[in-house]
Amino acid sequence: MEKNEVKLSFCVWGFSDIDHDEVSTILGINPSKIFVEGERMNPKFPRLAKENGWFIDAPADRYALFHEKMDALLDIIESNKNGFESISGKYYCEFSCAIYIYNDEESAPSVHLGSRYFSVTKTLNVEFDIDLYCLQNT
Prior knowledge:
Radius of gyration: 16 Å
Distance between the termini: 13 Å
Largest sheet: 5 strands, mixed
Helix content: 25-40%
Structural class: alpha+beta
Shape: globular
Number of helices: 4
Number of domains: 1
């Protein structure tokens, strides 16, 4: 039976006055993926991106705990806080958290935003979005 999991990303949305490479330069890191307005979000599906998007996925393994994934993203942000402040002050930024429940015999992954999260993000204009997907077979 598949294990429950949590996915976490830091996302920048809606920029049109700069390109994806400029976002990468300002933030000092290459994205995990990008969306280009008007282009396919995934080559396998016809859905087009409504706006530009730039994403860093938490660089932890699939079944790592939420706090391990968040710590990895906070490490990246702390390494270039000025760049992240600049981007988040101008464009819509969010932490995107998706929880996938495949197995109701296992406890759901916990999501806890601790003091480090609030310390790092207090100067950033960033949202926190969480989605829950219950995919277990009944």
